[in-house]
Specification:
Layout: E1 4-5, H1 7-15, E2 21-24, H2 28-31, E3 41-43, H3 46-52, H4 59-63, E4 68-71, H5 76-87, E5 93-96, H6 99-106
Helix pairs in contact: 1-6
Length: about 110
């Protein structure tokens, strides 16, 4: 098992000055339909992780110095990535339960739906 946060918790974190990385693992066409605008957002599609492994991740993610919240559409791909990273030894990594769809429905509809 791996740690998770709710979309409500993510919404609170996005309003804070907290240092973290929001790792969006959706594919690029999905970002055009729904996206959280924040300077802490990093996009690394799951397909790229599958082909390149941890090397696909940015240095700040690999450094593991700050919490990483993994996001996808409904929470299943991000759960897979979170579990995979935990198996790689990552400690400060969390799945965003429900994904951007739940975030849009419960926190901020302006990010969009698809």
């Amino acid at each position: 098992m791996f740690p998770e946060i709710t979309v409500t918790q993510l919404g609170q974190k996005l309003k804070s000055d907290e240092t973290f990385i929001l790792l969006d693992v959706r594919e690029l066409p999905e970002l055009a339909q729904a996206k959280i605008e924040d300077h802490r957002l990093e996009v690394t599609p799951m397909s790229r992780l599958a082909s390149e492994g941890p090397a696909a991740l940015s240095e700040p993610v690999r450094a593991q110095a700050v919490p990483v919240y993994v996001l996808c559409h409904h929470g299943s791909r991000s759960a897979q990535v979170t579990a995979w990273l935990a198996q790689q030894g990552y400690k400060n990594i969390f799945n965003v339960r429900g994904g951007i769809d739940a975030y849009a429905r419960q926190v901020d509809q302006s990010v969009g739906f698809y």
